[in-house]
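DATA SHEET
Item: assembly model
Revision: 1
Owner: S.N.
Input lines:
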Amino acid sequence: MSRLPEPTGSTGLPEQTHSAGSRTRSDQHESATSSDRGDQGDSPTLRPMSYRVARSTRSSRLFSAALGVLLITLISLPWWADNGPMRLIAEMAYFLALAQLWNLLAGYAGLVSVGQQAFVGLGGYTLFALTDWYGVHPLWALALAGLMAALVSVPVALAVFRLRGAYFAVGTWVVAEIFQLFVAQVPRLGGGSGYSLTPAIVRSIAADRGTRDQVLYWIALALAVAVTAAVYAVLRSRHGLALTAIRDSERASRSLGVDTWRTKLFIYVVTAGCTGVIGAFIFLLKLRISPASGFDVNDWTVVVIFMVVIGGIGTMEGPIVGMLLYFGLREWLADYGSWYLILLGAVAVVVMLRAQRGLWGWVESRFGLSLFPIRRQLVILPGTGQGESRE
Amino acid sequence: MSQSDERNTADLMTIDGIGRRRVLRSLAVSGASALAAPALMIKPAQAAGRPIKIGFVSPQTGPIAAFGEADTFILDGVRKALGKGIVVAGTEHPVQIIYKDSQSNPNRAAEVAAQLINNDKVDIMLASSTSDTVNPVADQCELAGVPCVTSDDPWQAYFFGRKGDPKKGFDWTYHFFWGFENIAEVFSNMWNSLPSNKSLGLLFSNDPDGIAANEQLPGVFAKMGFTVTTAGLYTATTDDFSAQIAQFKKANVEIVMGIFTPPAFATFWTQCGQQGFRPKLVTPAKAVLFPSAVAALGPRGVNLTTEVWWSPHHPFKSGLTGQTAQQFCDEYTRVTKRQWTQPLGFKHATLEVAIDVLKRAKKLEAAAIRDAIAETNYNSLVGPIQWKTGPVRNVCLTPLVGGQWRKGKSFPYDLDIVNSQSAPSIKPDSVIQPIIYT
């Protein structure tokens, strides 16, 4: 995926727009202070203003507070609400986690993979095999499934990283198909017809259904929160800067000394590991896996891409918005049979035509909101210049 | 009770102005009636109890949507027959059937089943049509302890596909349909009823069904006295069968049996015609179940043979509506202007069996309903249903017979039953004929 370096790019990536914007602003400062951009504030001769680098904005601080309240509400849900919606929230939670991971891959690292179902299925099958063959406790098996997926992703990465852009996308899909065909040939894994988890294994989490549902629900929440937090942390770290650089121009970032290959490998392996844990968890809920359901490109990748692209790729808010939209439509329309699928397609078409950067991209450009502030921005300290410069 | 009773007593005293004993008696009466009131509110003679919820999962969209195309018609019929409700343990309850589309996707099937269990809190779960719908739903029920009745999936795929142990069986989930052993019996009966050289050509798809069949069937048919030529497994998307056809021609094959999807069979059958291969009988399992699939073959669909699990000519009646199979199909054609299909009977039967189970349940709770399933002895639209004599504890076998497609009267093709040695209560419509080549 080559990205054109136009300033307000049609690729719709907010960082670009922003960097373009801030450059204009610092250009203004430059003209005012006639100093070099790099050491603008520290120039001993000219001290018209001082600044600090900040990332949080008022909206993001408000949002963090709201998020905290929401999280406490969700965590305490089993104590005060009926267990009915728990299952749906759990499903939303693991889809959010998958969407955040795919967004990190495609939206930031520029690795547009259409084969993440490989790791969902691998995680699921690892859980089934470990618990059924070796009697591993299902919760331990979740972690081991992640480890397995991360390990397998290394040689996979060595192969698919030789491909670029569309070829990379197709390559990852091929890998997933190979996994599926391989599993279908293993009779111990149920071959082509599939494999059910015996109730005794699931009961080892908790014998009583209510407790078990609660435990699984909390795991789902924990997965969503942990993945979102991890993605956020990665993006705010040194790796995050490297990633955005790679996303905008791989060649340019390499010339600036970013180790693009290693950064991409790091992201790919971490994503695969997390996807493996989520996959194992998904099939612990589903109780049954088959090559077709485990490596289903529609359920584990296309739906996830729908969420990310409709919500807004390359933003952390996008996957959340997309996930909520998808589930809203599904809960509302799924009982209408084919009409549901037609409407889902229509929504995708309309959003892609009217808001090419996704729903959040539209909100962001319209209102300048940022709930998960990743970029650094310059805040001019009061009394030293024109006051707080907002993004 | 105290306050209102006091008021009652006071009223009585002022109105009647009578002695202490009378007051005490009326106090006692009003007290008793106050105590009895809640009970009366529940049962004034035979008023409605809480609604009973039946969850029903079926593929309405997706690649196997043909199996679910009659669902709306079937649900309408059952709802009409139920009227205000059914009597369970002496109380009349309204019945609510909650229908969910599996989208032909096992992941979705598991999810809607979990939703029906957790959100809707269904009393009994039903599912039908292929392992992809039936197995995930049954798995969810088995773990959650929800009684479940399913149909329309060969029983081995249901039972062994879910890691069932024949010694233990399942606690909560029950199934009715036929199995692969019935397929072998019905097909060989059909082939034996027509003079031939008994040279049989087998061709299977490289998918779960085909692989399973390839392991079992060649040996079984050889034991039955056929000369078997196996052309191996073909890839589902192939568009060239000339090697297999050549192999069959060389072995002088007169009967062909295979497992095909409808498009794969259409390709195979066209190429047989092009290459002058003219077997007497062709029995493509799975490929020609639906009249639409046969119509797609044009005139070459005549006299193809297939497995028949249900037809309008089956001598069974719905225990719920009293309709015979024939009346049921006629009604379907009248309402929808479409030709009957085999899943029709099984969808209706799944629902009527559930209703029979609920009517017999001693209490409206999971364990009592499950016990009622195990005790079932019911005559349904697809035949007698009971789980006492099945091949394994949770499986009930329904009759399977052989059929042949003929030029139709009001629709392009009709399915005639041509062999029912395995289920003599079903009368054949006509005698098996070899495929006619012009």
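QC remark: The longest strand of chain B covers residues 227-234.
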